Amino acid sequence: MPELRKDPVLGRWIIIAEQRGKRPTDFIVEETTTSGGFCPLCPGNERTTPPEVLAYGRNGDQGSDMPGWQVRVVPNKYPALVIEGELDKQADGLYDKMNGIGAHEVVIEHPDHQVVFSALPPEEMVLVFRAYRDRIIDLERDSRFRYVLVFKNYGRAAGASLEHSHSQLVALPILPRKIDSELHGAISYFNYKERCVYCDIVRQEMRQGLRVVCENDDFLVITPFAPRTPFEMWILPKKHSSAYHQQSDQQLKLLTGVFSECLRRLDACIPGVPYNFVLHTQPLRSQPLEHYHWHFEIVPKLTSIAGFEWGSGFYINPMSPEEAATFLREAL
Amino acid sequence: MPELRKDPVLGRWIIIAEQRGKRPTDFIVEETTTSGGFCPLCPGNERTTPPEVLAYGRNGDQGSDMPGWQVRVVPNKYPALVIEGELDKQADGLYDKMNGIGAHEVVIEHPDHQVVFSALPPEEMVLVFRAYRDRIIDLERDSRFRYVLVFKNYGRAAGASLEHSHSQLVALPILPRKIDSELHGAISYFNYKERCVYCDIVRQEMRQGLRVVCENDDFLVITPFAPRTPFEMWILPKKHSSAYHQQSDQQLKLLTGVFSECLRRLDACIPGVPYNFVLHTQPLRSQPLEHYHWHFEIVPKLTSIAGFEWGSGFYINPMSPEEAATFLREAL
């Protein structure tokens, strides 16, 4: 059983998901794998994954776990957390821990093994954003979970272990530290100003224009004022909303428009750059929050920069967001 | 002039140190460099670095910036922060920024280009820990600075850009977010328990023995209860102390004993593994703190694990610290 453990000073929870029998040297740097060989995410191999929890695109007379889907969500075969069991919160002296209960799912973004997410046509990409929404709505009904972390690792350097285009959902019984810190920061701003800090960011960025990458009626893409890396981007709804999973199909279509555009701009600046994106949204079963604002953060993985920052939490960024936004606007 | 910028939600400061004229593709993943070629850190090349700010090991009649040293500290030739100027704190709408004033120094750990830090004999390694202390004492006199971040990147994957064994000091006009979070967590524990949380950790770890890697009379090395990666280690003084720079030569000798031992144990488990270590100590010009406890954190860089954790602040660790401690104890 995996275990959730809390750092007694920082309050940060981590998952211990032991891969028993591994030796220390099994954790050393892996080489990039090349394509070829069996892919469990490809159509025709549906029976090699755990049974699907969602699929879009099949017509009525095609059964589940069969080809014909456009987007398919399955439990992770090697989950970091397990779905069955009780949390069993415990103390061990001054330490806190609980069983590693949670859901860990894989969103297979397209049937074609070769396709790259950023190159998906918007009418296909939108299904991925609908899958995130619909899985959050479903997982919210499990009262053991407090948050669903949605993220994508693109490229081996960003942590992707399978080539077939996919993203992941992890339903957690705790709040990830970063989200918790954001909620704290946002509420202290709200208590002082009686305004949402992200709404103020949207207004200032639209007025200044210095860090705007692209936009449409409902969404804004910026390089944030204090970015960790060159080309970090945030995608924010222009109108206040704290819950991603309350977006309509029409809003997700508009989200897809700017998401697709900014990834293509990033790829035009640095072809094939690995990146992570993470959805930031309100905790499960929360009332709508006046002080929080859902958004995506896209962080390119530029290993010439990542280094001690990872250990110290302190970032040195060799490119201003104003310059990065200029490059991104001029790409394409 | 580099710039310090604050994230308006998280309160995290980052440095924008622009390398003008760089193109986006200049930030893509670099290949590991091999040895050979000119090394500005080698003896005989002292005139190619900025003038030294500290050197140990020369005898009386050898001049500064000449060979004969054992450990030498010089300003970074390509500093992330600059030493000359005023902070000039400013608002830009809802954002906060200031000039990138600070010191950025390189600690050259040994004259021999080929030497590896973990293989240094303790009587030579101790000079490195004395250099950290003596530079902090000197930098504390500059009232613009609030913190000195001391860290080492070993191996290209951990961010080292020069092969010659070295570590770095960055004097900052702000507190790094991680240290700030630790101070907050530690004081809230103290307010509740009236004890230092790190002292409680030391007591519990010594009693349980499960996560102890090695120890001597004054220092304890553990794998922490909630580690980010396999083989993460913390080195703590057993007796309460919040300020690294108040350690005597004798205490630094004892520190060196366990530091050297645990790095050799790590290297025996995963030969040549890249790592970062970071000194965590109290802010500059602070009174001794009852609630805080200086320590070092050593984080191996295992890229098969690092991935989205970096973007989300959420860690999945495939090895328990109890198992890692067993491997480390049995090594050597």
UniProtKB/TrEMBL annotation, chains A, B:
Free-text remark on how the cofactor is bound = Binds 1 zinc ion per subunit.
Top EC class, one word: transferase
Residues bound to Zn(2+) are 39, 42, 113, 164
Cofactor(s) required for function per UniProt: Zn(2+)
- InterPro entries under this entry? ADP-glucose_phosphorylase, GalP_UDPtransf1, GalP_Utransf_C, GalP_Utransf_N, HIT-like_sf
Q: What is its EC number?
A: 2.7.7.12
Q: Where is the active site?
A: 166 (tele-ump-histidine intermediate)
Query: Residues in domain Galactose-1-phosphate uridyl transferase N-terminal?
Result: 3-176
Q: Where are the transmembrane segments?
A: none
Q: Is the keyword Transferase in the record?
A: yes
Q: Which UniProt keywords apply?
A: Carbohydrate metabolism, Metal-binding, Nucleotidyltransferase, Transferase, Zinc
Give GO MF terms, alphabetically.
UDP-glucose:hexose-1-phosphate uridylyltransferase activity; zinc ion binding
In what residue span(s) does the Galactose-1-phosphate uridyl transferase C-terminal domain sit? 188-298
From the UniProt record, give one GO term of the biological process aspect. galactose metabolic process
* PANTHER family per the UniProt record, alphabetical: ADP-GLUCOSE PHOSPHORYLASE, UDP-GLUCOSE--HEXOSE-1-PHOSPHATE URIDYLYLTRANSFERASE
Name the family. Answer: Belongs to the galactose-1-phosphate uridylyltransferase type 1 family.
* The protein, known as: Galactose-1-phosphate uridylyltransferase
Q: Which organism is it from?
A: Candidatus Desulfatifera sulfidica
